[in-house]
Specification:
Length: about 325
Amino acid sequence: MRTQTYPGTSLVASRLAFGCMRFPTDRSAVIKAVRTALDQGINFFDHADVYQAGRCEEAFSVMWSEVPGLRDQIILQSKCGIRRGEPTPQSPTRYDFSYEHIIEAVHGSLKRLQTDHLDILLLHRPDPLVEPEEVARAFNELHAAGKIRYFGLSNHTGSQIDLLKTAVAQPLIANQLEISVWHPTLLNSGVIFNQDLPLHPVRGEGTLEYCRTHKITVQAWGPLAAGRLTGKPLDQADERTVKAAAVVQEMARARGVSPDAILLAWLLKHPAKIQPIIGSMNPQRIKESCQADSIELTREEWYTLFGAGRGSPMP
Ligand SMILES: NC(=O)c1ccc[n+]([C@@H]2O[C@H](COP(=O)([O-])OP(=O)(O)OC[C@H]3O[C@@H](n4cnc5c(N)ncnc54)[C@H](OP(=O)(O)O)[C@@H]3O)[C@@H](O)[C@H]2O)c1
């Protein structure tokens, strides 16, 4: 698998990353999925403290004894800032970028992952009550203690990043966003921003351009659209999804690769050097997804997929 360096860092990451949110309860299935990813050349693993209430981070720690020396060979990322089901199960889901919560959450992740540092910490979803100075204090302390090497965001717009930058001194190196052929909203916003009757709502306009301008690596979550276009039953699906699935299947057939690999190749072609975070736990599917690394879509193919995902041709 080819690699790419996070600009301004020493992190050399595989083009595809592996998301650990959907870890199965069976530990041997976890080991098999992670081993398959490693065998394919994936060296980047994405977590969050909230994934299965911490069980995904805990389960991953079994890999340290499974693969000796692994910790130094991989880039380990986790996220914090979402709180659910505490202090009582009735408490509302909320976001919390307070100094105390960031520090406490990171210590929880390090303990569950059984490691002394994370390579990247992302703030999971923008907290409207954020005080950039508090984030800065937490980041400074975690960085100085060697607990976090680099910092980034997830689901943030450019202006939200600018707000954090008023106080945060460390470079913000990543922004993890939902992007796929099925969910091309961030790309579409740039195309339709000045249409009188947009076929789709304009959301997140300029976010990808902001990341490119500021050399923030874009990570794509949901890159396989959870199988909606590539294998999940379509009997309940809307017309756009059914038609887009047919386009993806046909392109995969013509190229002799898996439909999931086509979806990933579409992301990899984007000049933002998008790093898809795949969430499959199926070893065969993980292997087939990695075919994307050797696919170079033409512009015609790329726009065919974009139009299919939009549900309408380009304006
Ligand atoms: N930052 C955020 O807010 C955020 C939000 C969500 C996720 N994430 C991160 O992104 C990662 C990926 O997210 P995701 O898992 O939603 O994305 P995904 O890769 O689009 O979806 C993976 C899911 O799709 C299924 N799937 C894929 N291809 C399929 C096919 N051909 N047929 C049937 N099922 C298929 C997989 O099932 P199998 O396991 O059976 O292959 C798995 O359940 C997560 O692990 C997490 O690390 C971040």
